[in-house]
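How it folds
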Amino acid sequence: MLHLTLRQLEIFCAVAQSGSTVAAAEVVGLSQSATSAALQQLEAALNTQVFERVGRNLVLNDAGRALLPQALSVLEQVRGMEQAFAGTGGGLPVRLCVAASTTVGSYVLPPVLALLARSHPHISVDVRIANTREVEHAVQALEVDVGLIEGSSHGVGLAVQPWIADELVVVAAPGDALVQAAQTKPVGVAMLRQARWLLREEGSGTREMVEYALLPRLHQLPAAAVLGSSEAIARCVAQGLGISCLPRVLVQSMLNDGSLVVLPTSLPRMERHFCIVQRAGKHVSAALQAFLDACAAQAVRQAGAEEV
């Protein structure tokens, strides 16, 4: 058990530097009697006297002279910690733990980390990639500082903040029969009900948002195959194994190189938000705030790029 306190060390140093409890009291913002009491408690904790009383003055004895540089060093380290964790010193390295759903972690988070590395190089980030439900559980259990998910959150005790909007698009291989049919007119509900849909697993944010967008219109969404990775689904679609509904941010490069095409359908535009989730009431440290600021900056950048 520790018997010394930082306040006692602060008062000891003030007395040593000023030579009296009266002068030290003004420095530390206490009464003279409270300053004297704290000094007595320090000597009791050390079981030794650290000052010699010479009239109204206090002079360090051999024990006090040995203690003073150690006390000053401790106080200096503590002030350094306060500055670093207040975001003003940048001296101490800080590690954040972030959980992200698969699409966010693979395609949206990397530029956020780049922004954070440039603005706060002393902050390191450990990233856990999982599906949305697992991210929610990690945030609830305080296993991570913050989570980034696709779609809405149903977790109890979570604070959810919409972050970046992303379009959901129905994609197919260029040679798919539905793409050929869509050259005449957009594919209607009846044909979509009979299509071979490749879907994510239950618990995935993408799966939830696809069902939310499509089921009210199709009334059924039979899965020809269920895969645990949106990237795997995109590649299977490119091989002509079926169609899928996926985030545009994930398939954009494949749309650009022509391995996938957006299937024209009679469905309205489908959009969902990536969201930031935190445990409700969790203290936001300076490092976490810096990460959230980087997320906000990336949202502005992405919105600007889409307008262009």
